[in-house]
Amino acid sequence: MTYLPDIHRLLPQSPEAEQGVLSSLLLAPKEVFSMCEQSGIDSRWFHIPAHAEVYEVLRDIFQSQDPKVDFIRLTQALRDRDKLESVGGVGFISSLWTFLTTAANAAYYIGVAAEKFVARELVRIGTECAAMAYDSGEDVRTLAATAHSALTALLVEKKKRQSVKECLKEIMQEMASGKPDGEVVPTGIGEIDEKLQLYKGDLLIVSAPTSCGKSALTAQMLLTACMDRGLRVAFYPLEMRQKQTIKRGLAMRAGINVKYVRSLLLSAKTAEAERYAQEQLKKVQDAVMDMARANLYIRDDLYALDSIIADIRAEHGKAPFTFVGIDYLQLIRINGKFERRQLQIAEITQRLKMLANELDCVVIVPSQQNKTGGTREAEDAENDASALVKIDAEVADNGDISPGRISVWKQREGARGIDLKLKFNGLLTKFEPLTP
Description:
Elements: H1 15-27, H2 29-39, H3 49-62, H4 71-80, H5 84-87, H6 89-99, H7 106-135, H8 140-153, H9 164-177, H10 190-195, E1 203-208, H11 214-228, E2 233-237, H12 242-254, H13 258-267, H14 271-293, E3 296-298, H15 305-318, E4 323-327, H16 341-359, E5 362-368, H17 380-384, E6 387-395, E7 401-410, E8 418-419, E9 422-425, E10 430-433
Helix pairs in contact: 1-2, 1-3, 1-6, 1-7, 7-8, 8-15, 11-12, 12-14, 13-14, 15-16
């Protein structure tokens, strides 16, 4: 068997399914168009150019102030665009009304069209990558990353675009029912959720000097979201290994350091000490069970931005993420030539912002501060962020540095420059409510 491309073979297609979609749209416009929007269908799904042209016109009609469609309106709209004869004339348009007797199987036709579109995209991407592998002088790893990113992008389902009327209706329903905004995603940490509203599609940057808890706060938000709220979370710790990350999470959850429990078990000499050690071990075991049940995905072996984004897309295609954390900004590698490191950081944050919008999730990225308190090497990152939390350094008399004031510097809605009343527990590497 050979896997070389055969230029004599037809690309994957189903003209009958494409006609079935168009005919169903004419038979049940409102219902079928809603299904098309939900599936993210657009003209690229139609391999036959005439079918793509007709769908474009129908979509424009359905999105207009007067969404009613009939034979004369459709043919006139095509004639006005000088497309009527190229799609097959009035005879072809007339045949669409009689191609089906019912729109009951519209979902099946849409599904077939989607499968054939993805198959054609696989052929296109594979052919382009093969051509570049033969002719391009580009680094092979960069080429592989480009191919990986393009392929995994096919796994991301397009979300339905909400119309203005639908959005207004949703706002009024939320006001009337007292329900929270459906676009806001709480982390599960009370003090944070009261003062910081994170929306789907947000890029949150947690900025702090070295050793001031930026990674700990990010991990705490991610772990709380998946263990307390049952959300699907992805974490890419670039600074620590997976085992270190999990041990920190167990300490946060159990309320006791895992290393300390181990020392208790080894040093217990009396019955009372053994009982105490077993009690603490039980806390860790309960935390292990909670984390085992959590919908948590961790990768500690990816550093390049293209590889990280491709992996996120691939896993998101299996089951959508609500939160994605990448720790931390300055450790992310990116391909390409940049005159300054600042431009690299800006490119990274802009791409992560677009990724959050694409996947409809919250992306959290810790970042180091410079000596003036701004995001190190790229103040543009703070401009790209949808929300910004800063942790100040607290310097002791002996020169030791620890997390101090935590404040919300930026968010879409809500106050800015407000403090989060949290204090850092160094033994558990977590932030706790600041009590009087």
